[in-house]
Amino acid sequence: MTNDLQQLITTTLRDPRGAAKQAQVYVLSITQLLQLAVLVCLVGSILTSLQISLYPTDNPPASPLGNFTPFSVAFYGFLSFAILTLGTFLGGKLFGGKGTLPATLFSLTLIQSIMVGIQIINLVAGLILPATIASWIGIVGFAYFIFLFCIFVAELHRFRSPFMVFLGSLGFFLILVLVFGSIVLWLVASV
Asked: Is the model's pTM score more than 0.70?
């Protein structure tokens, strides 16, 4: 199984659309899928915590999410991954997509494992290169995530255009922000 996953990650780097098609037929039990997702999220959270601790500031900005301890980073990492997975699945279904929840979880876990590799490169670059260059590596990594996300979701839900997936995802995200933002504002105003 490990060699198959390594081969699929390598294929994703060379041919994202082909890898997205392969990921749809990759069969793992739900337990294995969840373990793989937890592992990838945990490694990503550890790397994020390490990155935060390596670049301390004298006056850290006050964050409404609290200070970024390793546990809070892991919590927000798992929460955002779960929201992304469910949002991708339900958003795709809303627009007539054909993907399943296990296939969505596997596809996003595969993308996240590639992002862990980019995160390692960014971490090392932050230690040996000027901060501006390391920041650009992070920005390019995020753009690559969006690129992979659109291709994988297009294949997952059998949509024709990754660009339309991008526009649909952007619209879906804005709607979620407006809805959740309104709820938070309502809760804050009622206190």
From this structure: yes
**DSSP one-letter code for 96:** T
**CA–CA dist 14, 17 (Å, integer):** 9
- Asked if the model's pLDDT at residue 191 lies above 90, the reply is no
* SS3 at position 61: coil
In angstroms, the CA 111 to CA 169 distance is 16
Region 61-79: mean pLDDT is 72
Mean pLDDT computed over 17-22: 87
Count of C-beta atoms within a 10 Å radius of residue 16: 20
Per-residue pLDDT band for 169 (boundaries 50, 70, 90) equals confident
What is the chain's Cα-based Rg? 18
User: Do 185 and 155 touch, CB atoms closer than 8 A?
Assistant: no
HEC profile for 89-132? Answer: HHHHHHCCCCCCHHHHHHHHHHHHHHHHHHHHHHHHHHHHCCHH
Task: Give dist(CA 109, CA 94) in Å, integer.
Answer: 22
pLDDT at position 154 is 94
Task: Establish how many alpha carbons lie within 13 A of residue 92's alpha carbon, considering only the half-sphere containing its beta carbon.
Answer: 27
Q: How many CA atoms lie within 13 A of 58 on its CB side?
A: 0
**Coil/strand/helix, residue 128:** helix
Does residue 105 contact residue 78 with C-beta atoms inside 8 Å? no
Instruction: Measure the N-to-C terminal CA separation of the chain; round to a whole number of Å.
Output: 52
